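Comment on this:
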Amino acid sequence: MTQQFKTAPSPFKSDNTASNMCGFTLMNNQVGVVVADVMRTKPNVRVTPLPSMIRVDATNRMDVVYDEVSEALGEEPGYFDAAQFEESMSTHYGRMIHEDDRTIMFANPEDAAEFIGFDLKAGR
């Protein structure tokens, strides 16, 4: 008689359902800590400090408003911008849109359609 074994389900199995989440990681340096502190005050945002980086995750959408970060850094409005944000950020997930005054992260690409000029109507 052969013995039959059952394998436990993997906690790492693939799952392609939408998470409804978006986020980015920051370098754990002076600027990254300030950006994380600003984002921590936003609704639906979770900040997770790690030894070498800081994770910032949100449900649906989050806005990184540059002048809020400039103020928290003790600088004049306009100091912090998309280039500085990109320099502090390591990676992101979700749709990311840079505007003049903010970066917007969307969990679902459809929510970003109006910002990028994408028509969601099916063509004929």
